[in-house]
């Protein structure tokens, strides 16, 4: 990875903001990801994220912390937070913004235990493919203290396969419809393409059962998105 995401965050944080990140997938065209949005305050966050943060308890792991916006709010409200991200640039920015404990780490390499694990901004994306979900959930379960919780969000993107008559056309012989190839570019450079998973709630719930986790719908958003609590 070239860490273009981290480069963009560092540019914004050091007042070198001239353009936004551009994203696309194998089923959707180019879309701007505004850098200011990645530095949002609590009041600027979507309701799902605000709700998740208010449900946090005990020691918190912020997975895919980005610029540290979630961690900062939690710290300000008295929580002990560990923030991790695979992006070196993102972790650098999170530290510079005041996150006390931020480190470059892949979730599957994490070994500490927590009372709350936060995986937000389409948290199921880090699972990458449907075949990896059980592996990730099993590992997440091992990181939970007794009575701990995982707060994760995602979206059911079946609507993206709708035809003009409102019918859903999904190739049942293809991979799960929420498995996407995700492309990111910044300032004319292309990042190495990656896999990204949007998981509908029923599929997440069934996967949780197979590894001994309970999956509860906490909140449904306005656009096929939802927040779930795994215990």
UniProtKB/TrEMBL annotation:
Domain of life: Bacteria
InterPro entries according to UniProt: SAM-dependent_MTases_sf
Pfam families in alphabetical order: Methyltransf_23 (PF13489)
Biological processes per GO annotation: methylation
EC code: 2.1.1.222, 2.1.1.64
UniProt-listed Gene3D superfamilies: Vaccinia Virus protein VP39 (3.40.50.150)
Keywords: Methyltransferase, S-adenosyl-L-methionine, Transferase
Alphabetized GO MF terms: 2-polyprenyl-6-hydroxyphenol methylase activity; 3-demethylubiquinol 3-O-methyltransferase activity
UniProt protein name: Class I SAM-dependent methyltransferase
Species the sequence originates in: Geojedonia litorea
